[in-house]
Amino acid sequence: MSVTFEKRGAVAVVTVDRPKALNAIDRSVLEGLSSALDSVEADPDVRAVVLVGGGEKAFVAGADIASMAELAAVEAESFAAFGQAILNRIAACRAPWIAGVQGFALGGGCELAMACDLVFAGPKAKFGQPEVKLGVIPGFGGTQRLVRRVGMSCALDLCLTGRMVGAAEAVQMGLASRLVADDVLGACIAAAEDIAAMGPVAIRLCKRAIHENADSDLASAQAAERTLFGLCFSTSDQKEGMAAFLGKRAAEFTGK
Ligand code: CAA
Fold it and tell me: Which is nearest to 228 in space by CA: 253, 199, 202?
């Protein structure tokens, strides 16, 4: 199995597990991620997902170069379409995904991390889009997600030079959300449990408000935001969350 799925209470841990190839993404990894997404989408008890790489050395060192080397143009386009579709499903997934990056997150691995809602970088994390060194460009949305995340200047710097950046620089440019200590998985699970304790409908709608409107003009995006804000007031979670605050007690959300 190239990808494993493990439920720990309300948190699912998804591991890309090909450590001998630094967890490089081939079709079997994309199929494994697709199955993991199916499991998350079918189970409302999963409130947050942590995505990590197997072994110590890499999150994911990119798309699998050995399996791409002999592809024809149409096959390469189809592989990129498959990768983009899986990463888009992660971005659109009801539950937030947290990428826990220790070691290399390169090429498709950097793109996979960027499809997640949060990216936690351990002290040895290395991010980069080194595709130009192979005579190709990023193909899993990297040229597009990177520019939206870090801006044109840093995106061009990473994509044109292929250079790697460490955890601190990745956080500083907005590519990673947080620099965490050595126990990257532990930090991700702790944050995922925090998210899992929030109002599930609010988490889902918040994720939608941000992802679905990131490319819209401000007025349209604010219109979408206030519609979703209003929608929250049709839920039991809003009644419970506000009653719990006013009653000085912990909220017990039902996700309804
Ligand atoms: N695909 C396939 N195999 C890979 C791989 C990849 N992306 N990255 C590493 N591996 C394999 C190596 O071939 C090697 O296998 P063997 O032991 O069988 O020789 C094993 O993993 C360990 O790698 P190294 O010996 O190279 O380890 P290192 O510590 O010397 O170097 C590294 C680590 C700098 C990450 C180096 O492996 C590397 O540069 N990897 C390629 C990174 C890359 O170019 N990624 C982009 C891929 S293209 C892409 O992702 C396109 C896209 O956007 C969809």
Answer: 202
User: Ligand 1: which residue has its CA nearest to atom 1?
Assistant: 64
Q: Which CATH number applies to 200-246: 3.40.50.300, 1.10.287.70, 1.10.12.10, 2.160.20.10?
A: 1.10.12.10
Instruction: Kindly state if the Cβ of 138 falls inside 6 Å of ligand 1.
Output: yes
Q: pLDDT tens digits for the chain (256 residues)? A: 899 999 999 999 999 999 999 999 999 999 999 999 999 999 999 999 999 999 999 999 999 999 999 999 999 999 999 999 999 999 999 999 999 999 999 999 999 999 999 999 999 999 999 999 999 999 999 999 999 999 999 999 999 999 999 999 999 999 999 999 999 999 999 999 999 999 999 999 999 999 999 999 999 999 999 999 999 999 999 999 999 999 999 999 998 9
**Three-class SS state of 197:** coil
Answer whether 24's CB lies under 8 Å from 32's CB.
no
CA 134 – ligand 1 centroid, Å: 11
Of the candidates 31, 56, 131, 252, the residue annotated as catalytic is 131
Distance between Cα 45 and ligand 1 center (Å): 36
Distances (CA, A) of 115 to 90, 103, 230, 242: 6, 18, 27, 32
Amino acid letter, 255: G
Whether 6 is catalytic: no
Q: Is the CB–ligand 1 distance for residue 66 below 6 Å?
A: yes
How close is the Cα of 61 to the center of ligand 1, in Å? 6
